[in-house]
């Protein structure tokens, strides 16, 4: 006949919580008693000293009260700091958008060379490689060359025009005559700080050239609009 194993009494979680609460209450009462006794002894000593030195006694009591108030405030500051540290440990750092967000670039305030450099930096920021600024005499219509993240060759012409100077159809025709045949563009784009005329947009649509005006450029810079190689109308795959 098997011998039954002795049963082990299970601990009651409610009992443990009650015992823990009782210990905390007893500790609080003991601490309160110590504080009351200390305060009484201090007041008794001060009363005996006040007869001969009333001014010093009053100053001492004021200093004691000030120190007590400062300690009370310091305790609450310490508690808040501890809670903040605990919250940081749970959630991790939270970046501030005011610190992390880069201010928008005023492209209209740049000169032609600075504008080309700024467009090249946008291409690099969004994952392009082999980014080069080639604008200048003899550029044959290409200001920025790059390789898109999917491997396509990007050719960009930059037009840093004022608000009253729109990019016309002749500008697009000159670019269209070289971007594909000379530079082997798989994504061809014209980026301007101004706008495009109607005939220029019509020519671009027929030729497969992407047009980014001032608003589209601002969206690309802010990240609220896609880069040219991801715009509608751009070839989805590299050309053979």
The profile of the biggest β sheet is: 5 strands, mixed
For the record, give the distance between the C-alpha atoms at the N and C termini, rounded to a whole number.
Answer: 87 Å
Secondary structure class reads alpha/beta
Number of domains: 2
State Rg.
Answer: 38 Å
Spatial arrangement of strands, main beta sheet: 1-2-3-4-5
How many helical stretches? Answer: 7
CATH architecture of the largest domain: 3-Layer(aba) Sandwich
Order of helices and strands: HHHHEEEHEHEH
Architecture overview:
52% of the residues lie in helices and 11% in strands. The protein is α/β, with parallel strands linked by helices and 240 residues long. Strands 1-2-3-4-5 form a five-stranded mixed β-sheet, sandwiched between helices. Helix 1 packs antiparallel against helix 2 and helix 5 (169-179) packs parallel to helix 6. The protein is elongated and about 100 Å long. The termini are far apart. Residues 84-100 have low confidence and may be disordered.
What descriptive keywords fit this protein?
single chain, 240 residues, alpha/beta, Trna Endonuclease, Chain: A, domain 1, 2 domains, five-stranded mixed β-sheet, 7 helices, 5 strands, 52% helix
In short:
This protein is α/β, with parallel strands linked by helices. It contains 7 helices and 5 strands.
Topology:
Blueprint: H1 13-50, H2 54-91, H3 97-100, H4 112-125, E1 129-133, E2 144-147, E3 153-159, H5 169-179, E4 187-192, H6 198-207, E5 209-212, H7 214-222
Parallel strand pairs: 3-4, 4-5
Antiparallel strand pairs: 1-2, 2-3
Helix pairs in contact: 1-2, 5-6
């Amino acid at each position: 006949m098997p011998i039954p194993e002795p049963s082990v009494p299970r601990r009651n979680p409610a009992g443990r919580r009650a015992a823990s609460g009782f210990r905390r209450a007893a500790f609080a009462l003991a601490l309160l008693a110590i504080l009351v006794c200390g305060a009484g002894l201090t007041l008794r000593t001060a009363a005996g000293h006040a007869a001969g030195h009333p001014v010093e006694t009053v100053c001492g009591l004021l200093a004691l009260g000030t120190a007590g108030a400062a300690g009370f405030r310091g305790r609450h500051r310490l508690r808040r700091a501890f809670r903040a540290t605990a919250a940081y440990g749970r959630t991790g750092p939270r970046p501030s958008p005011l610190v992390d967000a880069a201010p928008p670039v005023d492209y209209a305030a740049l000169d032609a060379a600075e504008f080309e450099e700024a467009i090249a930096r946008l291409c690099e920021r969004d994952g392009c490689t082999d980014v080069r600024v080639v604008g200048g005499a003899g550029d044959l219509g290409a200001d920025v060359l790059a390789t898109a993240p999917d491997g396509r060759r990007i050719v960009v012409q930059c037009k840093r025009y004022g608000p009253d100077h729109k990019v016309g159809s002749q500008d697009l025709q000159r670019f269209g005559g070289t971007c594909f045949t000379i530079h082997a563009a798989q994504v061809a784009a014209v980026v301007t700080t101004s706008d495009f005329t109607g005939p220029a947009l019509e020519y671009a649509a027929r030729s497969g050239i992407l047009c980014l005006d001032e608003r589209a450029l601002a969206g690309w810079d802010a990240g609220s609009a896609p880069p040219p190689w991801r715009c509608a109308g751009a070839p989805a795959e590299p050309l053979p």
